[in-house]
Amino acid sequence: SSDLIWPTQSSRGWENFPMKMWNIAGKVSDLEKEIAFITATGGHVLLDNIIHIEGRDFRVVLMKWGDKYLHLFEKAVYEHHLESPLGNGLCHVVFEVPNLAEARQRALDAGARELMPPACVSSGFGTRDVAFLQSPGGILFEFAEMHEHKVPVLP
After folding, report:
1. Rounded Cα gap, residues 67 and 75, in angstroms
2. Which of 8, 71, 110, 142 is least enclosed by beta carbons within 10 angstroms?
C-alpha cells in the first residue's frame, strides 16, 4: 500500500507555480530573552529592524537558526486583523513567490482569507511585496515577491 497522495483536481496548476519557504515567524513575549535563548542554542542575529506597515512600526528580528531563517517579533503586523488573539509561538510561514498577484489570487480562489491589503516593505532584509493570508482551517501564511535580497538565499 502506498501513502503517496496524488494532487486532486482542485490542486492542479500549483505544481508548476514555484513557491519556496523563505522563513518561519514567531511571536514572543520578550525579544531580548528569545534572542539570548536562540543564540545559546546555535542561532545568530542577522538583522534587527523596524518595519513600517499600515502606518505602524514593528520591531522584527531576523535570525538564522539551523538551516532556516526565523523572524521574531512581539507583535505581528497582521495581528490586529485577526478574529481572535494571536498567542506566542510559531505563527506563520513565509513563501517566496515569483508573482505575488497570481499567488494571492490563487489562494483567495482556493478559499483563503486576506488579512490585510498587500504592501511593499523595505528593511535590512531587502525590498518585497507581501500579502498575509489565512487558510480556511486557520493556517497563517505570507506570500512575498522579492525585489531585492540583502541576506543570503538559503537552499
Report:
1. 24
2. 8
CA–CA separation, 132 and 118 (whole Å): 7
Examine the pLDDT at 2 and tell me if it is beyond 70.
no
89 bridge partner residues: 27
What one-letter code names the amino acid at 7? P
Cell 482556493 belongs to 110
Instruction: Judge whether residue 3 has pLDDT over 60.
Output: no
pTM for this entry: 0.88
Are residues 47 and 124 in contact, defined by beta-carbon separation less than 8 angstroms? yes
**Residue among 125, 116, 126 nearest 77 (CA):** 116
136 vs 96, 118, 121, 140, CA distance in Å?
Answer: 21, 19, 26, 10
Sign of CA dihedral 116, 77, 147, 104: negative
Asked whether residue 104 carries a pLDDT value surpassing 70, the answer given is: yes
Average pLDDT over residues 41-65: 96
Give me the DSSP letters along 92-106. Answer: EEEEE-S-HHHHHHH
Q: Look at residues 104, 94, 95, 103 and name the one whose alpha carbon lies nearest to residue 17.
A: 103
